[in-house]
Design goal:
alpha/beta, 203 residues, 34% helix, 8 helices, 13% strand, 4-stranded parallel β-sheet, two-stranded antiparallel ribbon
């Protein structure tokens, strides 16, 4: 069975959004946001110099992927999507591209690896989410510089090279008015070709 057929038949799954944005949890300096919490940096227009300080207190010593496995199994879920990097640009693996990752900020060096290992051991399909938007470049920026393009393609390559088979990869963040690349600056076809070259069966 190919991944497309499997995904259509799997039915019930879960996407986990987890990153620096979990610390403010939708509130900043006494203000509550009306949107979902992972958009806190953009919603409150928090400068990167200020927002990046969250990395210094993001200390997931109680993170336990096996607890998430049990939750998924008890609920009857067949697959999980884990946010390897959201729009805030904080990589939950030791990326060689940039200096904004869990490995540089905490004692846990590779959350992606821990997540994939636990869910695979339980026989659950484990895929990843990755955003091509990266707010580390600055909120409100309208250009997509070559260095950012190199980072995006490099980080996708890391995820699809260093962690075994990734059955599905959700890629998000194009055409965002606060700094995501346009399809002209980073054609989806180019990213799709990279994914298929590295992992032909990745959905």
């Amino acid at each position: 069975m190919d991944n497309k057929q499997w995904f259509r038949e799997a039915g019930f799954g879960m996407m986990i959004h987890w990153g620096l944005y979990c610390l403010p949890a939708g509130e900043w300096k006494g203000r509550r946001m009306s949107d979902i919490g992972e958009w806190a940096q953009e919603y409150f227009r928090i400068p990167m110099a200020e927002y990046s300080r969250l990395a210094g207190v993001f200390n997931p010593i109680l993170f336990d992927a096996e607890e998430w496995v049990k939750l998924a199994e008890d609920a009857g879920m067949k697959y999980i999507v884990f946010t390897a990097k959201h729009h805030e640009g904080f990589a939950l693996w030791p990326s060689e591209f940039g200096n904004h990752s869990v490995a540089q900020a905490t004692v846990r060096t590779d959350i992606v690896a821990e997540f994939l290992r636990a869910f695979r051991a339980a026989g659950l399909q484990a895929g990843l989410y990755f955003s091509v938007l990266d707010l580390t470049a600055g909120i409100g920026r309208r250009s997509f510089p070559p260095a950012q393009r190199e980072r995006v393609l490099g980080q996708i390559t890391e995820l699809l090279t260093n962690y075994g088979e990734i059955p599905y990869l959700i890629i998000d963040g194009w055409n965002a008015p606060w700094g995501g690349p346009s399809y002209r600056e980073l054609p989806f076809e180019e990213v799709d070709a990279l994914v298929k070259r590295l992992q032909p069966n990745c959905l």
